[in-house]
Amino acid sequence: MFIAHAAVAALLALASLGSAFMTFTKNPQVIGSMTKVGVSEGALPWLATAKAAGAIGLLAGLFVPALGEAAAAGLVLYFAGAVISHLRVKDYELAPAAVLTLIATAALVLRIASA
Fold first, then answer.
1. What proportions of the chain, in percent to the nearest 5, are helix, strand and coil?
2. Span 102-108, average pLDDT
3. In sequence order, what DSSP letters do the residues of 52-83 get, joined into one string?
4. CA–centroid distance for 103 within its chain
């Protein structure tokens, strides 16, 4: 189970770091998506930091299980919130957030199962 968790956690960490980088650098596609759901420009650095912290926590969680659980749970909540934000404004271009929610959930379940 640990190997499966490590693979999923590494994949999620890579995706989260990429998303954080694109948010920090104000990638037009990411900014456009966030603007559609009502995210203010002032919130962008905070959201990017949350994704980066989750990614770092996932990787550190390979050695400290409780930290990995907390990071995975935080990313589940973050990406589930993104899905809800898209649905709230009737924006159905939510596949990236939905997929990341599922991957974060898998990371959390595998982390708990491998402990």
1. 85, 0, 15
2. 97
3. HHHHHHHHHTTTSHHHHHHHHHHHHHHHHHHH
4. 9
